[in-house]
Amino acid sequence: MKSLVLERKDELSLRDFPIEKDEEVLGPRDVRIKLHTVGICGSDVHYYTHGRIGPFVVEAPMILGHEASGTVIETGSEVTTLKEGDRVCMEPGIPDPNSKATRLGMYNVDPAVRFWATPPVHGILRPTCVHPEAFTFKLPDAVSFAEAAMVEPLAVGVHAATKAKIKPGDIAVVLGAGPIGLVTALSALAGGCARVYVSDLSDKKLQIAQSLSPAIIAVNAAKETVGERVKADTDGWGADVLFEATGSPKAAAQIFEPLAPGGCVVLIGGQSEPISYDAGAAMVREARVENIFRYAHVFPRCVAMLASGAIDVKPLITRTFDFDESVKAFEIAASAPPADVKMQIELPQ
Ligand SMILES: [Zn+2]
């Protein structure tokens, strides 16, 4: 089927691609889905421009894309919660249902997890796919296909906010105003934060952050230290929660500066090399440090919050391309236009 294929580093093509037979076999608890909208993720772009992310190396042509929504077109014999015609979004990582991690409820850290568009597993920038019912979520009418394709990145923010154990009225800081930083800020507000300080070096990105909510305070890290700003606004106490969403070792070196005593830091941004942080600054605050890897158990919560309006991701979707323009879309995404947050691709219906 016609698919967006990463042939090798720096080379994409939209071409007919033979999917392995067993990937297309509909099991009793699977559904077949006609893809509708697929978001372009930073990880897709990174595989395109670098050919690898950490230990995952593109060694054979691979279909990209993992942020997706679509329509169920066929159901396996034992499927009970979905039917043909249902609009759905899909969680892209499938763990081994019998693994120890899965049985302990931490299926996202199952070493055997198969995640779309992570070599050697193909992604879903293609007309159809087969997916387990258990990782496919029905959409209410109020949630569009475009919003539903935002559930995957949103899930990272909601998982991070959950790990932080936010309490109503907390003050939060988010370092980084990229797509993940912004969905984290929205998740922190939905979780009950009174204010969220978002810092970045790009004024354009900060303008977008600021436009999302009057409770978001944009801080340009080139002009102002976020720690000093938060301290000034909180009588010297600091923020209850800090989310690190830049993946920059320089930002990570200062994560405890804005933090209040007893506060929590959640590390979200991927670090390709070992980094150091100020353990002494963590100690005097009795800071709690959490790490997240993707997400677990949050897709239905994300769908529910989009449906109720508790979270609005529409302002983050800044450009939409036709499937035929996929290669161009990735070239544009790779150039990292400062005014774009999320670019999406729509498949022909
Ligand atoms: Zn993603």
Quick structural overview:
Keywords: Metal-binding, Oxidoreductase, Zinc. With 349 residues, this protein is α/β, with parallel strands linked by helices.
Plain-language structure description:
This protein is an alpha/beta fold. It folds into 2 domains: 2-150 and 313-346, Medium-chain alcohol dehydrogenases, catalytic domain (Quinone Oxidoreductase, Chain A, domain 1), CATH 3.90.180.10; 160-291, NAD(P)-binding Rossmann-like Domain (Rossmann fold, 3-Layer(aba) Sandwich). 27% of the residues lie in helices and 29% in strands. The strands form 5 sheets. Strands 3, 7, 8, 11, 12, 19 and 20 form a 7-stranded mixed sheet that branches. Strand 13, helix 6 and strand 14 (195-200) form a beta-alpha-beta unit. The two termini are 14 Å apart. The structure holds zinc ion. Zinc ion (ZN) is lined by residues 41, 43, 66-67, 152-153. This is D-xylulose reductase. Residues 10-336 form the Enoyl reductase (ER) domain. Keywords: Metal-binding, Oxidoreductase, Zinc.
List keywords for this structure.
single chain, 349 residues, alpha/beta, Rossmann fold, 2 domains, oxidoreductase activity, acting on the CH-OH group of donors, NAD or NADP as acceptor
List the helices and strands and how they pair.
Blueprint: E1 2-8, E2 11-16, H1 21-24, E3 30-39, H2 42-50, E4 52-53, E5 56-57, E6 62-63, E7 67-75, E8 87-90, E9 93-94, H3 100-103, E10 114-115, E11 128-132, E12 136-138, H4 145-148, H5 151-164, E13 171-175, H6 179-190, E14 195-200, H7 203-212, E15 216-220, H8 226-233, E16 239-244, H9 249-252, E17 259-267, H10 279-285, E18 288-291, H11 299-308, E19 317-322, H12 326-334, E20 342-346
Parallel strand pairs: 13-14, 13-16, 14-15, 16-17, 17-18, 19-20
Antiparallel strand pairs: 1-2, 1-6, 3-7, 3-11, 3-20, 4-5, 7-8, 8-12, 9-10
The structure holds zinc ion (ZN).
GO molecular function: oxidoreductase activity, acting on the CH-OH group of donors, NAD or NADP as acceptor; zinc ion binding
Protein name: D-xylulose reductase
Keywords: Metal-binding, Oxidoreductase, Zinc
